[in-house]
Structure formats: C-alpha cells, structure tokens
Amino acid sequence: MDRNQRPRSIIDSLGEELIAILTPVSICMFTVVLLVCILNSDPSSSSSASFSSIATAAYSESDSDSSWDKFVGAFLNSLVFVAAITVATFVLVLLFYLRCVKFLKFYMGFSAFIVLANLGGEILVLLIDRFRFPIDCITFLILLFNFSVVGVFAVFMSKFSILVTQGYLVWIGVLVAYFFTLLPEWTTWVLLVALALYDIAAVLLPVGPLRLLVEMAISRDEDIPALVYEARPVIRNDSRLVQRRVWRERRSGQNDNDDVENRTNRNEVVRVVRSAEVDEEHVGSSERAEIYVPLIDRRPDQAENSETFLEGIGLGSSGAIKLGLGDFIFYSVLVGRAAMYDLMTVYACYLAIIAGLGITLMLLSVYQKALPALPVSIMLGVVFYFLARLLLEVFVVQCSSNLVMF
Amino acid sequence: MEDSRSDDPNLNPIRNRNPNPTPNPLSTIISSAQVWPTIDGPLGLTEEASVDYARRFYKFGFALLPWLWFVNCFYFWPVLRHARAFPQIRNYVVRSAIGFSVFTALLSAWALTFSIGGEQLFGPVYDKLVMYNVADRLGLSGLA
C-alpha cells in the first residue's frame, strides 16, 4: 500500500518539537504575568512588601538607599543565593553518586507537595481575597488537597498521563516563579544574571556539578530523579515507532545503516539531561506581616530545599526535548518582573526569551549534548528589558502623546 | 496479512487491525498489538500494568480524592470508548467515573448552596466559614 502523504521535511518535525517546548514556556510566562497583574494591581501594598528568604539574607532593600548601596546589596544577595544553590547541587550529586535514588524521589514528591499545597494555597487565598469569591473553607480545603495529592502522584510516578504531568510541572513553575517575583527589584535582576553565569559554569565546566550529574546518569543509564519537563516525543511515520524509555542507545557513527531495522530511530541520541539545581528559597515570615501558614513552620534562615528543580536543556531518552523546571521558573520571573513595570517591557522580554530559547535549541541540535538553557535567554531578556525601559518607552510615549503612533 | 473483519463475534474486533502497513518488522509487531488502553497510546502503559494502575487509582480515590478518579477516567479514556476491549480495567474505570460524578454532585451542591445562599441562609455561621474571613483570621492573605 502506497503512502500518499508527502514526506515530512525537517521543518515539520523541527517545528513540531519547537512548538512542543515553546508552548508550555509561553503558558507559564503568561500565567505568571496574569497573576502579577491581578495580584499586584493595588498600589498600596506592593512596594512595601518584603519577604525574607535566603535570597534576601544579606541585604533587604529599602527605598531610601542609594543606587550604589542597592546594587552592592543585590550583589551580595545573589552571591549568597548562588552559593546556596551550588552547595545544594553538590549534595544532590553526592546523593546520586551514593545511589540514594529512592530518597531523591521521595524528596521530589515531598517538595512538589509543599509547593502545590503551600504556595498554591497561598496564591488561591490571595485570589479569593482579591475577588471576594464566596467559597467556604471546607470546599477550598478539599479542592486544594485533591490538587496537591494528584500533583504528587503526577511527579512521583514515572508512568503517568503525559498531559497531566506536564500540566502540573508548568503549574509548579508558575507558583514558584510568582513567589520569586516578590523579591526586591535590584536583587531580582542581579540574581537572574548571576544564575545565568552560574548555569554556564555548572553545565559546561568539567568540574561543574551538573555536568558530573549528567555524566553519572549517562554512565549508569538512569534517569535523574528531578523535576524536568519532557516534551511529548514526536513520533514520525517514517521512523520506527519507539516506546518511551525502551531504547537508550548511544548514537554511533552508523548513520548510514538505515537498513538495519532494529536500530534506533534517527532521533535517538545520547540520552543527556542537563540539570542544575535551584534551591527553592524558603518563604519566611516577613518583618512586618505575620504570615503563619498552619501547615508548615516557617523559619526564615532555613532554605526550603526543593532542590530538584533543574535548569538546562537536553534530549530525553526517546529523543524528546527536556527542559528543566528551573528554566521555566526563571524565564517567568524575568517576565513577571517586567510586568511589574509595564506591559511593553513584557512584550520585549517575551520575544527576547523566546528568541534565546530558539537559539539554545539550535545549539542543542548542533552540539548534541546538554546545554544550559538560561544564559542566552536571560541575557537577551535583561538587555531588552533595560533597552525597552530606558529607550523604547520614551519613544513610544512621545509618539502616542503626539498622536503619531499608538 | 489479516482481514480486519472477522465473522466470529467473540473476537475482539480491534485486536486484528493492522493500521500501519509499512514493511518494517518492528512496526508490524507493535501495530498488530491491540489498541492501547491509555490515552497516551504507545507512549503509555501496557495492558498488564494498566490494570494495576487503574486499581491503585481507584482505591486511592476513596481518600477524598475525586480528582484522582477523574484523572483515572481521563487517562484510561480508550477503555471507556471501546466497550469490550479491556474488561478488567473497565471495571475500575467505570466505578471511578461513578464515584467522581457522585462526589462532584454532592460537593457542588454544598458549594452552590453556600455561595448562593450566603448570609441569608446561614446567618452568622457564614462569616465563620467563608474563606476570605478564615484567611484574614489566620493571617494568610497578608503576603502581597
């Protein structure tokens, strides 16, 4: 029986894979911008809200400091944060080396539960408070409980519905990103740049923890137990149908042996997963408002280690693109912080991030090894934010007020 | 090469279909297997593992988790569609669907009564139960 379909070109398959990874990133960013716009719209509470966490341990910003003070303070904060993440990543590498995989998986499930129940609950309460939605606490608790427990299942169990797992991962990214946007402004920007640099170091240097982690995972042919978004593998008609996680063959130089039918499909490459770990900072109680959540005791000096967020991009076991959850989070933090200024900066930063992600994916297909996904996008995003804020805004405002362009 | 229509009414009409007639031995092996029980198709579970999963989801759902029942039905949607394909899985999935419907009906009845009835129906208890007051009392909404 002849196939009358036209042969799928590289553009079709590449486009499908790109869309498969761009869609969840966009959804995550969009949701964070939406939350920021809704919840921060009353000006009385926004600027004074301070919340202490490990990222503001060295210096907490106040409006009266000079710019240089703020910058130095932000720099110190970032150093502390990056140091904490490095330590946490090395701990993860050590645990993985000692084969404590069960503990890591349990920890992952536990941190997902904390994020979903705690942070999710807080955001829902904030939304309910904002809209005065007449829901009662029994229904609310049942819904929150359901949502969190099924989320833990989705993250914990390896063979779960792809759509539900992806949805929950995006949702976890949204929740953590929203809380990161509550950091003071200078700290956020310096922190983003510092994390981009850290990502390059951790992934590309031979001594970097993520590189060690990935090499160990490859040599043992295992999955890293971590929160990683894996796009649904694209099944092509002309290649062999592959069951997920069945084949993990290294690509040898046998690309010409297409007639060897038992070989992997041409998408099957060295299974590399890039990971960097992001310590989720502990949302401690602020200096002024007491935030007491009955579920968990908050201690501002202790980092809440849900360190299984990964940054970095790589190829999954079936050739699908894997993007660490830390990337989702920090892209969304950048866009969320841009949203706090104006929507114009949001558009600029969104396009910059998507362009950066596209560049990273192209580099991934060229180099065929795991790459850090943060640096290009974050650098472009930060540059475009400042350009838009300093230069574009003046231009657009002048044009609009003179009715030249809207 | 098998005829997809069979005279035998007991045979599962799905099992012998061969939808992907490429001359590739591996794809013929895979495509001559039955319809996959999960919504993910070939990326999802095999039938044996599905029974285990369906049973576990069904049992866990009794811990006040109707959403888990819903996810169970969603995940095994092909089981519900092809009525005679997977009898064991279907048992659990149908029961999950019933459980989800019943629980949702009860919960939404309560929630709607609460929100529509409001203060007139409940009196002072309303203020004690409604979420934004509870949040204010416990200080949960002071973050932003």
TrEMBL record, chain A:
Its EC number is 3.4.23.-. It is a multi-pass membrane protein. The chain crosses the membrane at residues 21-41, 74-97, 106-127, 133-156, 163-183, 189-210, 347-367, 373-392. Keywords: Endoplasmic reticulum, Golgi apparatus, Hydrolase, Membrane, Notch signaling pathway, Protease, Transmembrane, Transmembrane helix. It is found in: Endoplasmic reticulum membrane; Golgi apparatus membrane. InterPro entries: Peptidase_A22A (IPR001108), Preselin/SPP (IPR006639), Presenilin_C (IPR042524). The PAL motif is required for normal active site conformation. Belongs to the peptidase A22A family. Probable subunit of the gamma-secretase complex, an endoprotease complex that catalyzes the intramembrane cleavage of integral membrane proteins such as Notch receptors. Homodimer. This is Presenilin. It comes from Camelina sativa. The gene is LOC104786681.
From TrEMBL, chain B:
Its main location: membrane. Residues 9-23 have a biased composition (Low complexity). Coiled coil: none annotated. PANTHER family: GAMMA-SECRETASE SUBUNIT PEN-2. The chain crosses the membrane at residues 60-80, 92-112. It is a multi-pass membrane protein. Keywords: Membrane, Notch signaling pathway, Transmembrane, Transmembrane helix. Belongs to the PEN-2 family. The lineage of its organism: Eukaryota, Viridiplantae, Streptophyta, Embryophyta, Tracheophyta. InterPro entries: Gamma_Secretase_Asp_P_PEN2. Residues 1-23 are annotated as: Disordered. This is Probable gamma-secretase subunit PEN-2. It is found in: Membrane.
